[in-house]
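TEACHING EXERCISE
Course module: macromolecular assemblies
Task: Read the component lines below, then compare them to the predicted structure of the full complex.
Student: A.B.
Group: 4
Components provided:
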Amino acid sequence: MKKTIIINGLFVTGDAAAPVIEGCMVMEGNQLTYIGKDAPQPLETYDEVIRGDRKLYMPGLVNTHGHAAMTLLRGYGDDLALQVWLEEKMWPMEGKFTAQDVRYGTLLAILEMIKGGTTTFVDMYDHMNEVAQAVSDSGMRARLTRGVIGLCPADVQEAKLREAIAFAKDWNGAANGRITTMMAPHAPYTCPPDYIERFVQAAHDLDLPIHTHMSETLKEVEANAEQYGARPVEHLEKLGVFTRPTLVAHGVHLTDEEIAVLAKYNVGVSHNPGSNLKLASGVARVPELLKAGINVSLGTDGAASNNNLDMFEEMRLAALIHKGVTGDPTAVPAAAALSMGTSMGARSIWLDDIGTLQPGMKADFIALDIDQPHFLPRTDYVSHIVYSASAHDVVDVCVDGSWIVSGRECLTLDEEKIKREFESCFARLTNS
Amino acid sequence: MKKTIIINGLFVTGDAAAPVIEGCMVMEGNQLTYIGKDAPQPLETYDEVIRGDRKLYMPGLVNTHGHAAMTLLRGYGDDLALQVWLEEKMWPMEGKFTAQDVRYGTLLAILEMIKGGTTTFVDMYDHMNEVAQAVSDSGMRARLTRGVIGLCPADVQEAKLREAIAFAKDWNGAANGRITTMMAPHAPYTCPPDYIERFVQAAHDLDLPIHTHMSETLKEVEANAEQYGARPVEHLEKLGVFTRPTLVAHGVHLTDEEIAVLAKYNVGVSHNPGSNLKLASGVARVPELLKAGINVSLGTDGAASNNNLDMFEEMRLAALIHKGVTGDPTAVPAAAALSMGTSMGARSIWLDDIGTLQPGMKADFIALDIDQPHFLPRTDYVSHIVYSASAHDVVDVCVDGSWIVSGRECLTLDEEKIKREFESCFARLTNS
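Instructor-supplied answer key:
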């Protein structure tokens, strides 16, 4: 098994006992086996010795909610009212998406994500075989799920559910375990209750978790209460969703009681600050969620509502907006935001062996170029990561023990070809 | 006079009549003389022909409020309550700053700013001769002012005012007009009324504008009302401040009546969204300010409260937070945020010949590398600049007709030396 040592590095570990280490890290195969001040063995015993001077190594970022192929709709109708944006811009275009479009939309998103330090992402979309194949080819890690909208005739519902089940079965554990799956009824407002119950049953049968949108907008919460006599949390609880490990996306509009229910069932919340602001959905109650002990992670959502896939920005937004809105400058400190983007992100999608740099963890990590003005002075590197860094500072990326980005170049994908094919897809979509 | 033409470029002009032009731009000396689809003259008649393929050219960004040397305090005590941060972290360190510290703190800030596309900045600080010299050396443009705190004995007040006047006189119009000056009583809560009146008189005598902090925190507004029987806007109005062209920084806590007063006197507001969020000061009423016809520009504030000097981020925050907080997805559209970062920024510091790409304007512009995933598809470039771009996308920077950054390298300053000296300053400050 190949043994690699990084020497002279600065490591922001995510381990509260030793958050910053200057020294060495060893990986054997796809696992980290050592991190500490001195090399555990003479350097000549390693297959590879990497000098980490002027680089900061940290866990890869975990993007826990998104729709990667929506890169095809980046900048395609911004600053519009939500219904106009959805009905006149997003849905007509998405209705035309072919497998080829999803393939290249996803590949472009993956390029942007890995070059920007995201090593794991959640994707909920259609044509998921294409997404999984792209993940497999790229070397990234992903928790994937066919997101199903159930506002359709029974036979179409049935076909979609079968497709979601087949995808979840086929790909769970694929690509050396880099790909895992979930079941995903799209949202309480897009799936009838009995259809959601069938997803819960399928998740039980396959022993898989559930991912769904929940309480993103006030309007949707009020409509849920009117239609079903219960706000979304109670509604999903009644339907048995939380009997499965569950990750909800957004969770913007929550009462104290709802937060308590989510905490009781250990439901994770993917906070999407950029998307929630851009679509004017509101500001999630993140300080309260964290105080309740809920796993709060971060997601970019699709590129049409963000509009980039820079997880450093989501960490920064998470650290900034809750201070500004609550009036408390100690709300969501830098360390909490970093944890939301890494270890809590990993735990919220049930990947317990990524998200920190510690012996025994999978080798999913990134290196930033800190020989730049915005990383000086050498004060608090956790603060610098959250308040000053960006996706563009990432130079090297390792996932599952393999380098997939080196010196800012993606080693696994043909960037030029992907950009070209992506532009062809977009041209066809807009001209058809 | 040297004639340069850029061909095959994509130009986001800031001119509402022709916001995006694919074609050519000509500069002669320090002025833009043409922008349009076709080259006005045969290419062999130009001294320099630059191919702009895969680059987006736009006006340089204008940062209208900051304290550049505070880069020395980046990450030095984050996530603290405001008074603890000021009294235990900022003030004791700033009290030790020498001219040398301000020189290298400012030079590091200038490096970060120009490499990130900011071509003009406002600085309000101490040891301003050092700041002006750094601006002169760097090739940047700046509106500079000695920020004076007046909570001191009369003889110290007198000395500070004289110093502020001497600086404003000595440097106004220097460096081929790249440097202009202002008078700056620090804030209503740090300057006694009669001392502010002396600054107003000096500004009249020198025919210079006034810059001051105003209504950044609720506490300061309430204290002003209690101490002087008037909120800050009325207080400054009574002291005659607005009889001079005025730019106020922050303006977070404003009533409708105060907004009307600012509009009446054509007072500009430098909106600092990153700093206001991080210090938990609140969210300024930017949609209302814009509706009132006020020039709203953008500032990073000092790096200790931001923590980077990326003006793309300030544009993005300005476009995002007001949507999220007001619930209106059409609040502060991308074009407005871009204007705040460029043309409104220029107008708010009375530099009417920068901020757009149009014939007759000074040649202050930047080029972004748009051959990257996050600039695809080629939909709306104004949207891409505001919602997706960052400082790191900037490759070339031209100020006053001279290239000061080319291929991401600063041509005017010795980056390695500045980083080294900056680190020495920081080490001395923390060990003394």
